[in-house]
Design brief:
The complex is a heterodimer of chains A (321) and B (342). With 321 residues, chain A is mostly helical. Chain A contains 13 helices and no strands. In chain A, 76% of the residues lie in helices and 0% in strands. In chain A, α10 crosses α12. In chain A, 33% of the residues are buried. The chains are: A mainly alpha (321), B alpha/beta (342). The interface between A and B is medium-sized, with 22 and 31 residues.
Amino acid sequence: MVAFLIRRTFGMITVLIAVSFITYVIFFRIPDGNPAERIAGRTATQANIKAIEVKLGLNHHGFTGLIQQWWDMMHQLLTGQLVSYYDGTNVVQQIKEGMPETFSLCIGAAIIWLGFGVLVGIISAVKAGRFSDKAITALALVGISLPVAWLGLLLRYFFGGEGHFSWFPDGGYVPLTTNPWQWFYHLLLPWFTLAILFVGFYSRVLRSNILDTINEDFVRTAKAKGLSARRILVKHTLRASLIPIVTLFGLDFAAVLGGGAIITETVYQIHGVGLYAEQSITTQDLPPLMGVTLYGAAFIVVFSTLVDVAYAYLDPRIRLT
Amino acid sequence: MAERLLEVNDLKVRFATEDGTVSAVDGISMELERGKVIGIVGESGSGKSVTAMTMMGLTRGVNARFEGEVLYKGTDLLKVSDRGMQNYRGNELGMIFQDPMTSLNPVYRIGEQIVEAIQAHENVDKRTARSRTVELLRQVGIPNPEVRVDDYPHQFSGGMRQRAMIAMALSCNPSILIADEPTTALDVTIQAQIVELINRLKDDFNSAVIFITHDLGVIAEIADEIIVMYAGRVVERGSKRDLFYDPQMPYTWGLLGSIPRLDRPRVERLHTIEGSPPSLINLPEGCKFRPRCPHAFEKCKQEPPLENRVGTPGHLDRCWLDVEYKRAHRDETISPGSEAAA
């Protein structure tokens, strides 16, 4: 276990270094990729651009220069000194400020999507082939197909603010520590917007896993022992069926925590990491982009390690090596 | 006379499928007394496993139809609700399955799975159930059971897993042990040990056994009575002695001829039954074995009833052939090349 964690930690660091370097290279390779030229504006002289390059530390040339610049940026990021090219705000500071809103959105949505996904999946599998199963299947497909941006805007339009059924506030965020009820009230629509896709998807996956597991020999053995239908479902069928869900959940949850809920945050004006990412993409601002990318990548690598640990716990045949 | 535990009367099992109705079992009857062993033999798809699972109520489903009776101590199990069957499964009828590799849940410890079976039927605390589990594992020959009880199935070999399955099936002292091809997935030396174990435990636990196999060699060691099934039907039924020394059905001859034997002159190749079993949706007219039977004649286009033709009481068969003709010709199939010895 210890050896596993040490090895995985080295692996994670390697991945993060690779991600940051590739992000850096791609940024300068895209058309119109020189930040100095963009900041200087259309009428800038060569001297202007040169001056800005020096100011941003982008005046190194060639391959070693590229590595030098990348290394400088990493150093600034890790020491918390990296600032935006445009407004000079501190990147680490900005991400830190966005985290409570992103975490509130994602944890709430994750509870909803995991809870409903599992519940709906079980009902659908137990009633397989009957009307309720078919209705759930249709609804799940609709849920999977709805574009989040469209769904979010519609929900906000109809149920938020000045809509026809203005039961909910029109976007925005209230910190949990300020007013727990308002926090909950403001987040309810965003939670459901973010969760619906996952509910549809998870319930489909779980349904087919359960139906596969039901035909396993060990489930027949459980029945032949004289166990009740409920116990067979919960203790024998569900346990095996949930293992693939753990992988899905680990990676999906990491992705939204890591700033992947860009659309939901944008639609509801939740100033989380996703909205920060959206703004820095629009302005092609490299330091925030680098910060958000590494922040997201860190969640992915950490959670995929956690998934492996959870696997070993759920299935004793799996050894962590 | 020993206590009559089980009486199956003309059991029929059909499944509706997309391709038509499958007649998996078409009229099987048997009686089982305490301490006895019935062997059911037949190829894959002959209906032997469906028969066993139907007794346990494991074949129920929207597409399954049942006829006849499965009387356990006078109660018709076919009429007991699925919930009601929970009191019979494991408690009155224990079952061992073919593949011990997949029949145990891989994510729970062996002990836990047996404790679960005990606690499903008896109101005992975990500690008592656990010490009984250790005792059961000892009885089925698991070395060091106090330690191995906490192993996971993947830490057991195939033979040990089957022993654990037997311990689980016997954990609540069932009156009947149903063993559905318990030795098929095991290698030959382990097979003999498992058969020997079942035979011994049957006496220790004072139960009766229904032993299902496709291997007449295995059944010779354990069964008192043998039922030969083909295409969902009983084609021959009698005591072990009748079946081995006076077999009446050409299908039985084929099964006997395909056992390698050390007590007969060595033959070039073992006998094989030509062809394959018929589709249970489109059964041939008349005798179901007719298309594969080298002795078939005109009359076989009508299906022969299962009746006593030999004279030995309790020996039934489904074959129109003349008894004397059969006695004269069966050794060509059973032990080719040694007719003179017969």
